[in-house]
Specification:
Layout (H helix, E strand, L loop, with lengths): L10 E10 L2 H12 L2 E6 L2 E5 L7 E5 L4 E9 L2 H13 L5 E2 L2 H7 L1 E2 L2 E3 L6 E5 L1 E2 L22 E5 L3 H12 L2 E10 L2 E9 L7 E6 L13 E5 L3 H13 L4 E8 L5 E6 L5 E6 L13 E3 L2 E4 L7 H16 L6 H4 L7
Parallel strand pairs: 1-4, 5-9, 11-14, 12-19, 15-18
Antiparallel strand pairs: 1-5, 2-3, 3-4, 6-8, 7-10, 8-9, 11-15, 12-13, 13-14, 16-17, 16-20, 17-18
Helix pairs in contact: 1-5
The chain binds fe (ii) ion.
């Protein structure tokens, strides 16, 4: 049971931490292709900005080639303490981030605790705002009350993951998508913590306890201010020779127009435009058939990629997915 009051609406996706050894590629990808503001912090750390926040992406040197932590901006100290108290009440350890770690992330009052799939969850109250003007190819990105975008995660234990975000952040189910890819049935749960249609998407193979994706995060999403920004970044991804994963298309549920590029670390990066915003007074969850109204065609996926996915899937049967059981059993209905 959650302790009242709800923190729904006070939680926003604030930053993402990526571990990679491919710094030169990441810099080109983030700056020259996607069009974000770039700052070198040290030999082992670089950051991208989308807006006046000092840090939206922290890339730190290391072998994971994956997202390793997700940072959540909590609007006020009362809600922040509410989240902390919930995590502690379930017996899950909460660790205070050091001053150096908070400075690297450009935040105040940093705490971290374990999350699903080994993805560390971090919370903070106040982002540090930069006085340095943005130098970037995009005209702007939509952040604010909606947060900076969303994270999509594949899971062999989607019910537990949904329970986790419900318990910790009062996440609400926005809708479902059922999809069939190469004869394999997929169910995706879309969760929101504020007005953004979803900040977390959980994709699961129906009836199969298999996770076919190597990385903890399957894709990240950021939202372009304008259609021109989206289209021009799409052109640059092509021109600079980065891999496209899915061509431009429109999603069935949030109606977002988007494309998916492949990051230097291997997971995908979705740039979107114009997703619908949820009106809490009228919204009812529903199930959509298929992820796209049109487009989003896979690019260059060969039979070898598919075999590789099944090989990884078989491995996931041997190595069970990490969960945080104490925070995942909120007893919410899920089908
Ligand atoms: Fe997405």
């Amino acid at each position: 049971m959650n302790t009242a009051p709800s923190v729904f609406g006070s939680v926003h996706l604030g930053y993402v931490v990526v571990e990679s050894d491919r710094f030169a590629d990441w810099r080109r990808f983030g700056t020259d292709a996607i069009g974000m503001h770039h700052d070198d912090i040290s030999r082992d750390v670089m950051r991208f900005r989308l807006d006046d926040h000092e840090c939206r992406f922290l890339i730190r040197r290391g072998p994971a080639e994956d997202v390793v932590a997700i940072g959540w901006h909590i609007d006020d100290h009362t809600s922040f303490e509410q989240v902390e108290a919930r995590v502690r009440a379930h017996g899950v350890p909460v660790v205070r981030g050091s001053d150096e770690e908070a400075a690297l992330r450009g935040v105040e009052r940093l705490l971290r605790f374990p999350g699903p799939k080994g993805l560390v969850q971090e919370i903070y109250t106040t982002p540090v705002v930069s006085s340095e003007p943005l130098r970037m190819l995009a005209s702007g990105w939509v952040t604010g009350d909606s947060g900076m975008g969303h994270v999509a995660i594949t899971s062999a234990k989607p019910t537990l993951m949904r329970g986790y975000y419900h318990t910790v952040f009062d996440a609400r189910l926005t809708d479902y998508i059922d999809e069939t890819i190469s004869g394999v049935k997929l169910k995706i749960r879309f969760l929101r913590v504020n007005e953004r249609h979803h900040s977390i998407a959980i994709a699961a193979l129906r009836g199969l306890p298999i996770d076919p994706i190597r990385t903890r995060v399957q894709h990240l999403n950021i939202q372009a201010d304008s259609l021109d920004d989206l289209a021009r970044s799409y052109e640059r991804v092509h021109e600079l020779g980065f891999d496209m994963a899915l061509t431009i298309g429109r999603h069935t549920n949030d109606k977002e127009l988007s494309y998916y590029a492949r990051t230097p670390s291997g997971f995908e990066w979705e740039v979107g435009w114009n997703p619908l915003v949820i009106d809490e007074s009228t919204w009812e969850p529903s199930t959509h058939q298929g992820i796209s109204i049109w487009g989003h065609r896979p690019v260059g996926q060969t039979i070898l990629d598919k075999l590789d996915q099944f090989r990884l899937g078989a491995r996931s049967l041997v190595r069970p997915e990490r969960t945080v059981p104490a925070l995942s059993g909120a007893g919410i209905p899920d089908d």
